[in-house]
Amino acid sequence: MEVEPRRADAGGSDGDGAEITRLCRTLVPLAAAGKHAEAASTYRWVTRASLGAPRRYGDHAMRLEFCALTGNEHTGFDLLSLLDGVGDHSDAIGRLEFFASAALLTRRLTETGYGEIRFVLNGPYDGLSLRLLHRRMRAAAFVEAEELDELDQNDYFTAYAEQKMTAKPVTEFVPLLPSALPRIPILPPPDLSAEELVVRAEIHNHRSEPEEARACLAAIGAVGDEIAPRLAELRAIFFQGDDTEERLRRAAAGFRRQGDEIRFLLNQCWLGLWLVFDDQAETGVALTTVAAARLRAGTDDRAACWGEYWLAHVLSGQGRTPEAYEALRRGAERAHEAGDPLLHGTLLCLEASLRNGDGEDPVTTLELAQAATDAFIVGNVGEKAVEAVEQVRIAYERVGSLDELDVFVENLLSTLPASGPDRLRGHLRQLRALSLIGTGRFADAVEDAYASLGIAASKGKDTAEHWYVLVTALHGAGRYDEVLDVAPHTIDLLIGLPDWGHRCRWMYADTYRALGESSRAFNEYALLAEILEESGDTGHSYISVSMAAAEQLDLLGYGANAADFYARAADAALAIGGGYVAATCRNAATLSRLRSGDLDAALTALDAAETAVHAVETETAPAREHLIAQLDHVAAHVLSAAGRIREAARRALRAAETFHRIGEAESARDVDLLLEQILLGDQSG
C-alpha cells in the first residue's frame, strides 16, 4: 500500500501547487534584491516540495531561470532531465516557459566554457553538446511563442521568449547550501591567439585538468601550419575516438616536417601507449621504448622525464613493473635536478600508485606519495595533489594505520599555505569528515563535509561520495531539515552503488520518521524494502526496513497493513536463521492486528507468535526470558480484549515478574499498568 504524503513536507499541505508556484515567482526577485539567504531557503523549499508532484513545467522553468541568473547553472543542469516529455505537456505556455528557461541555462553554461559537455538523456536530445542543445531549446521556444502569437494576432510571446533567453545574471552567486562556492569558469581568457590557447591546453594537460584543456581546444578555429601538429595531437588526446591513432600519426608527420625531434619523440611515446591500449602491445611497447631511450640520451631534461613517465605506463601495463620502477626512478632524479616540482611529483605519484596496486612495501610507497604531495603543493597543482594524497591514504589503509592517516591529514591541513591548492584543502577536509564520522563525531564532521563538497563542486569535481558523506554527517548530527535538502540528489547520484544507495535511502526515510512525517517515512521505507526485495537482498537490511515501515503504519493507524509488514520481516528473518527477530516481529504483528480492530485476526496472530517464541532455543537465557515476557505482555492485551480476563491477568502478572527479575523496569511498569486495567475491568464487569 502507499500512504498519501503531505505535499509540502517543509510545512503545510499544498494540494494544487499554488504555494509552490507563488514561491517560485519570488526566487529571482529575492536574488536581485540581495536577499540571498532567503532566496536559497525558498529554492530548497520548492525543490523539496516538488518531489513526487505532478510536473508543472512553469514552476520548473522558474527554477531553471533562477539557477541560470544566480551562478548556479550546474545545479540547474539536473533540471534539464525534465526535457523528456515536455513536448507532450498540454500547457502551451508551460512548454514555452520551460524551453526558454532551458535555452537561457544552456546559454550560460556555454558562455562559461561548458558548451562541449554532452547532454545524456534517453530522449530526442540525447548526446547533444550543450552548445547545440541551446540552439534546439531556443528554436523550440520560438516555435511555441509563434503558435501562441498566432492565436492573439500579436508578437507578445515571441518578444517575451527573446527577453527571457537573453536575460543577464541578477547577481554573481547565491549559495544554495552552506559553504557552497561559485563554479569556476573553465573558459580561457578572451582574445588569446591560437598558439597561446595551445600552450594553455598543454599546461592543463600536464596538470591533470582535462576539462580546462578541452575548453581551450574548443576555442581554437583555423590555425597555421606551424602549430597545426600540436593542435592535432592535443585534439587526438582529448577527443579520443576510432581515428585517434590516425590523428596521432598525422601530428607526428607534421613534427617531422618541421624538424621538431623532441615533439616527435614525445608523440611516439604517447602513440605507443595508445597502441598498447588498442591491443597492439608489441608495436606499442617497441615504439615507446625507442622514443624514451632517444629522449633520455638528449639534453632536454623535461622531455626526457616525460619519456620515462610514458615508458613506465607502457611497461607496467605489460607486467614489467621492475623496469617501470627503474624508469620512474631515472625520471624523478632528473626532474628533481631540473627543479620542476610538477614533473617530479608526477613521476613519484605514478610510482606510488603502481606500488599500491602491486601490493609493494607500503613504507616506500608512503615516502613516495608524501614526497609527491609536497612537490605538488610547491607547484600549486591541486588535482595532482589530490591524486598523491589518495595514494597516501591507500598505503595507510593497506597497513591498517588509520590513526597515522588522521595525523597526516591534520598536519597537512594545519601547514597548508593559505595560497595552497584549494582542491587539496577540500580533499583533506573530506578525509577528516570521514574520520570524524567513523568515530561517531557527526556534528563535528558536518562543517568539513559541507566545505569539502563546496570546494569540489566549484571545480566540477563533486562526486557521489561527497554528497553521501554530507548526508551521513547531517543525519548523524540530527540536522534533519538539511538531510531533506540534499538526500534526494544524493540518491540519484548513488544509482549503481547499492550499498551506499540503500543506506542513503534509509537515512532519508529515517529523517522523515524523526520529523514525525510518518506517511512520508513509510513511503520511503516501503520503497527501499521493495528495492531490496527486487535485488534479492532479503537479509538483515530488508528485515529492519520492513519493521520500520510497519512501525510507521502503526502510528498512522493502519494496523492490518503494519501486521503484513511485520509478517514479511518475520518470514525473512526465519529464512536466515533469525528466530529471535522473527518471534519479535510475530509479537509486534499480533498487537498491530489488535489495533486494527480485528480480534479474530489478532487471536490467530497470537497463536503464530506463541509458536515462534517457543521455537527460539539458541539465545541466551536472559534474551529468551525477555522474549517470553514480551509474548506474555502481548497475550495479555489480546486476551483482555477477547474477554478472557483471568488468562489475561495471569499472563500480565507473569510478564511483570519476568521484566522485574531481568531488570527491565520500564517494561515492568508498562505491564503493571496493563494488569491494573485488566483487574479493574474485571471488577467492573
TrEMBL record:
InterPro entries: TPR-like_helical_dom_sf (IPR011990). It comes from the Bacteria. This is Tetratricopeptide (TPR) repeat protein.
